[in-house]
Amino acid sequence: MTSPVDTTVDTPDWRALPTRGQRAEARIAAFWRFVLRVVLGVGILVALWGGAIAFFDVPIFVAPGPWDTWQAFLEQGDRLFGALGFTLTGVAIGLALAVAIALSLGVVFTLSAPASRALMPLVIGLRTVPVLAVAPLLIMIFGRGQGTTIATVVIVGFFPIMVNAMRGFRSVSHTVHELFHVTGATWWQLLIKARIPFALPFFFTGLRVATTSALLSAMLAEWLSGAPGIGRLIYDALGYRDMPLMFAAVALSMATAFTIFGLATALERRLAR
Amino acid sequence: MTGIDIRGVTKRFDLDGRSLTALDGIDLSVPEGSFAALIGPSGCGKSTLLRLIADVFAPSEGAIAVGGRPPKAARLNHEIGFVFQAATLLPWRTVRENVALPIEIAGVTPRRSPEALIRLVGLQGFEEAKPAQLSGGMQQRVAIARALVLEPKVLLMDEPFGALDEITRQRMNVELLRIWRESGTTAILVTHTISEAVFMADRVHVLSANPGRVAGVVDVDLPRPRSIDLMKSPRFNALENAVRQVLFDDDETEADSTPERAHG
Amino acid sequence: MAKWLRDRVAAVWPPTAALLGLLALLEIAVALGWTPITIPAPSGVAMEFGQSGADLAYHIVPSILATVAGLAIAAALAAILAGIGASWRRANGPVMTFGVLVDSTPLIAVAPILIVFVGGGMTLHIIVSATACFFPLLIGMTRGFRAVEGTADELFHVLAASRWQRLVKLALPSALPYIFSGFKIAAPLAVLGTLIAEWMGAERGVGIMMIYAMFSFNAPQVWMTIVAVCLMAIGGYGAFALVERIYLRWAGLEEAPT
User: Fold this and answer.
1) Of A118, B183, B261, C188, which shows the fewest CB atoms inside 10 Å?
2) Contact partners of A by the rule of 3+ C-beta pairs under 8 A?
3) Are residues A105 and A130 in the same domain?
4) Residue A5 has pLDDT above 70, yes or no
């Protein structure tokens, strides 16, 4: 009901608006600033870490310093990356399945209002619950292999994707519906030409949420089930007291998670515009 | 030295390294107790000028006197009432609590209670309502009551009725004139509606844009109290045209003032 | 009044019916022997609550305590960092990066390292729980502190309000909806954190009860502990959602920020 807030200057001079080239420059500069911040942050952490270890004179079998961890990384690199590869494969397959199931169910719910009214509240209610808690159950069902990992990723990833996709499908405004109705479009055309484009930004948000929790869930499932992924590697290394290896695996998993988060967020921003 | 006095005020803004001159050499005075209107196209800096008077920021050059003192002193002494374009009521407070906000902040007890002001703006019965339950016009009336509760020397209004439809706006104009008459403050109204400026003010200051300068002044000698009927009179239309003349003449003048102008 | 009630009922009965229908179907399927042994009948799970009820109570109390403590610590830290981020523009970047770092840290990575330093007891559970729910709290508080709209700020400036007045009369009430929203999201995550920490090793806790049940292949008990954890999460979420709704209604705000 109220008009937009006036800026301190009544209207900016159009000549003061940035050009396309300037905007691209600004984006690139922002990216490098982000990278710099990350590198700086990590650098500070590593320095603190190394400093703490040295200051408190912590023995290597309790906690290694950055240097020892790096050594372990170099020496057992193939073992580390092998385990990571196993985990990431499970994550990728799980996510693909989650997307397929979530989107199909999403379309069904959108097309059938009764189904939506009956089942959506249940789905939303389940979202509150930490679905990862069913991991032991999945181990009981799927055994100790990659099946459990994939099942865990599917269950964890399914909810955010579906809920967001539904939000997206529903975000089509009333007037757009009227437009399609008046021009005599079929429900298929409405789906393809209106619902899906409107839903895309929401879908990518859901995908980002699912992706970022997928890695954690996979690692956890592996650790519990004993499948040879990086989650299990951390647990094993702790068991052998090979602390440098454990720290290396932890660092690697954190770096991977961070990277995945960054990529997913960047993808969401680019494609959701 | 009473009322509001603006001398040689220039305001420049820095936007990402570029300098933008919003106001250039403004000379303007508003006699105490009178009603002034500021009108001009977008970008003429009228809202900026209002905020300079309210000490939201300081001028780059020049001086402003509010009741003989600098804006900052007036503001800290709670002599300024400001009504924003958006009512800006605190949604978790009732109407009465919203009107009482300046009292809480200043820690003084004013002559008139919030209830009296709520009655003044015609909202008796709504004291316990929350802003979400009020229409836009009603919210602005609460904002006006709030601006007047400490009996300020100066009432500054930034297009308060801009969001309302014309019918409601004209009604609100009559209301505001009644409220103003009763309060006796010096009032400045920023508006982009010519009829509103002429209807409300004793003097209409027309500003031009890019950069903001005083393009002209139109004195409104219509008798008070003013009613809507006045808007039918020829005198009213003549005054509107006078304002229009300054506003649009200004565009032509700008086009003519290019250096390459041939004849003299 | 009747309409309000009718609307509520109309919204609630389809999912309730669906839920009961699914449970009934499951019951029948188990009776007919269609399901694998890992999926017991809902009645079996309900009975398990009766049978192992005392055990459950014994285990669930430390879990709840750890979760609440974890939430409190994460909230305190989030409040401090959000306050810093709100007061100094430059600090905002590092604060957010820190939050993202904590968020992307796989809990499975944090826990083993912490075990080395603090052992496997309650302290570990609380820290892991706090780590799990920290980021949403940080986001909620940051958004809350930023939630003051522009003209309201100008208003307080023109009214010559002191910094303290601005904080109490403007910033805090504006921030509360966002803060409650953050707590809503954080509560189930804190439950999850406690659960994972207990899986790593604990004497008492719902997580460890679940693991024991898994190893003994006691399907009804595994399901029972899962339902118990779900109830904990829903309870936490519901409690904060209720507080949020009460505040919003009192404050006359229309809708919660998502």
Assistant:
1) B261
2) B, C
3) yes
4) no
Q: How far is CA B117 from the centre of its chain?
A: 20
Q: Residue B173's domain spans which residues?
A: 4-79+152-255
**Which domain range does residue A123 map to?**
67-271
Which residue segments constitute the domains of chain C, with CATH numbers given?
44-251 (1.10.3720.10)
Residues B105, C156: C-beta atoms closer than 8 Å: yes
Does one domain contain both A155 and A34? no
B61-66 and B80-83 as β-strands: parallel, antiparallel, unpaired? unpaired
List Cβ neighbours of A263 (8 Å cut-off, separation of 6 or more).
none
Closest CB from A1, A9, A12 relative to B163? A1
At residue A62's C-alpha, the angle toward residues A56 and A65, to 5°, is 60
Task: Pick C70 or C116 by higher pLDDT.
Answer: C70
> A97 with A231, same domain?
yes
B57 to chain C, any CB pair closer than 8 A? The answer is: no
- A130 and A221 part of one domain: yes
Band of pLDDT at residue C180, cut at 50, 70 and 90:
very high
Mean pLDDT of C228-236: 90
In this structure, the answer to whether residues A43 and A85 fall within a common structural domain is: no
Tell which of A3, A5, A6, A23 to mutate to test the B interface (max B CBs under 10 Å). Answer: A6
Report chain C residues whose CB lies below 8 A from the CB of A37: 93-94, 97
> From the CA of C61, how many Å to the nearest CA of chain B?
38
8 Å CB contact of C211 and A136: yes
Contact list, B84 vs chain C (CB under 8 Å): 151, 154-155
| ipTM of the complex model | 0.80
Sign of CA dihedral B137, B138, B139, B143: positive
pLDDT at position B45 is 85
